[in-house]
């Protein structure tokens, strides 16, 4: 009983935080909710996460029912919808969902959006072909429960895709070394995982493939001399190393799961 109350109160802290601190909001100067705002944040995201369209097939789910857990302002969901998927997004944050609705309107796509907790989803068993959660489990009060719920709502021949942060990665090491905090390090919950911890959290799934991604790219996140050093020196030197050597150090752990 105490554990349930703890989890509920942590979930409320998480909701409060993400209602006030929309992901990447500070990366744009455009007014929230405008077409320019969404275009700029999409540009920012897919410049920073250049790897993402190579490892997530946004156009590959035409006619499939896709659920995004923790969809935020719907940047990825818009891409799935443009690719023809029948999309549903849930999030704990009313503010994020309001913006996701504006995003869908500007993009001219249909999305079903619901205020819901990924650890207690209002969906029938086996109702989605694909479940997607990018950058969510690491910020959630009860990530294990979210994984169980995703396993419950995905169809037997469906798939789930998740991304969490890699504790044993170049970015975590750089942040500790330079004492520069990572984005949203002040969130009420932020857990970075090793590959084996992530694998054990995904245990409800029958098959799991984990691929480390996200290697350094020049970013508008860093300004001044730190920006010069990071964008000018670090990114260049890191990226001449053979990918097979540095692969385990990728900041994002992508997981591809089947029931
Ligand atoms: C870092 S943001 C990521 C948003 C989006 N997936 C993206 O990649 O831009 C984390 C999101 O997860 C949501 N979230 C955290 N815990 C959740 C939960 N238990 N159920 C649903 N959404 C949750 C937050 O409200 C927030 O919008």
Structure description:
With 259 residues, the chain is an alpha/beta fold. It has a single domain, classed as Vaccinia Virus protein VP39 (Rossmann fold), CATH 3.40.50.150. Helix content is 41%, strand content 19%. It contains 10 helices and 7 strands. A 7-stranded mixed β-sheet has the order 3-2-1-4-5-7-6, with helices on both faces. The longest helix is centred in the N-terminal third of the chain and has 19 residues, at 2-20. The chain is globular. The two termini are 30 Å apart. The mean pLDDT is 92. The structure holds S-adenosylmethionine (SAM). The site of S-adenosylmethionine has 22 residues, from helix 1 and strand 2. S-adenosylmethionine binds at residues 14, 18, 23, 69-72, 75, 90-93, 96, 117-119, 134-136, 139-140, 146.
TL;DR?
The protein is of the alpha/beta class. It is 41% helix and 19% strand. It has ten helices and seven strands.
Largest sheet features: 7 strands, mixed
Each distinct ligand: S-adenosylmethionine
Average predicted confidence as pLDDT: 92
Order of helices and strands: HHHEHEHEEHEHHEHHE
Q: What Rg, in angstroms, do the CA atoms define? A: 18 Å
CATH superfamily: Vaccinia Virus protein VP39
CATH domain topology: Rossmann fold
What class do helices, strands and sheet pairing give? alpha/beta
